[in-house]
UniProtKB/TrEMBL annotation:
The protein's name: Terminase large subunit gp17-like C-terminal domain-containing protein
Record-linked Gene3D superfamilies: 3.30.420.240
Domain of life: Bacteria
Organism: Maritimibacter alkaliphilus HTCC2654
Length: 241
């Protein structure tokens, strides 16, 4: 009988007492995308989504191998309008929950009013990747006051998510807002200008495609997780102590 899989942080390990066996270390990590409402209207809300990203090791006849990469949306929620201070507490508490506390990465929408919220998180040691969602087609990195900003176009985020869903690189799990996410995904449309520039629009009566955008952000982070991201629980400073 083979030993059971052991998880250490984000690492997945199949223990073996045979020194001739090369351990194939897998992983299971969680990418959290947090989309900040840009206005107080009822069609623009705070939202987050969590993607589970894993490769599980298994035994063949004589050796260990890694299984295929699997990325699945396992949770998505809207967060009611509230002050940045209150929203910061929500984010802190979310990232302190297991398994996020030991194997979670966070990306926050730092566009527009999100910059101030991101500053609030940073001042209180809530580690995260800052993303500014831009127009255009590509992505770039910039530094301000020693802080890294990842400028990523909306078209790149949505095209990457659409492609991943289409080819099966990203799947949607079962959670309460699954159907709402699917409606948001189906609501997107794109217009192409004479210069070739793409403009995306979408949303439902319940929200301005907030959940879908948070999924797209989390998916981007799954391939950029070393950029300002953090795994594990960080002790917070200031009045949250």
């Amino acid at each position: 009988m083979q030993p059971e899989l052991v998880q250490q942080g984000e690492d997945l390990i199949l223990p073996s007492s045979d020194p001739a066996v090369t351990i194939a270390k897998g992983y299971r990590r969680y990418l959290v995308g947090f989309d900040i409402a840009q206005s107080a209207t009822t069609v623009d809300a705070n939202a987050f989504a969590i993607i589970q990203d894993e490769r599980i090791p298994h035994w063949t006849e004589y050796a260990q191998e890694l299984g295929p990469r699997r990325r699945t949306v396992v949770r998505a929620e809207r967060v009611p309008a509230m002050s940045y201070t209150e929203l910061g507490v929500v984010v802190r508490n979310l990232m302190r929950q297991e398994p996020l506390a030991t194997a979670g990465y966070l990306v926050v929408d730092s566009s527009g009013v999100g910059r101030a919220f991101s500053d609030l998180l940073l001042a209180r040691s809530v580690q995260h990747t800052r993303m500014q969602i831009t127009s255009g087609e590509g992505e770039s990195e910039a530094k301000e006051r020693g802080v890294t900003f990842n400028n990523v176009s909306k078209s790149l985020l949505l095209n990457s998510m659409n492609s991943a869903l289409h080819v099966g690189d990203l799947k949607i799990g079962n959670f309460p807002l699954r159907n709402e996410l699917q409606r948001e995904l189906e609501s997107f449309s794109v217009k192409h200008s004479d210069t070739g520039r793409s403009t995306f629009s979408g949303g439902t009566k319940a929200g301005h495609a907030d959940i879908a955008m948070s999924v797209a952000m989390a998916l981007w982070l799954s391939d950029h997780r070393t950029v300002g991201a953090h795994v594990g629980e960080t002790r917070l400073k200031g009045y949250w102590d």
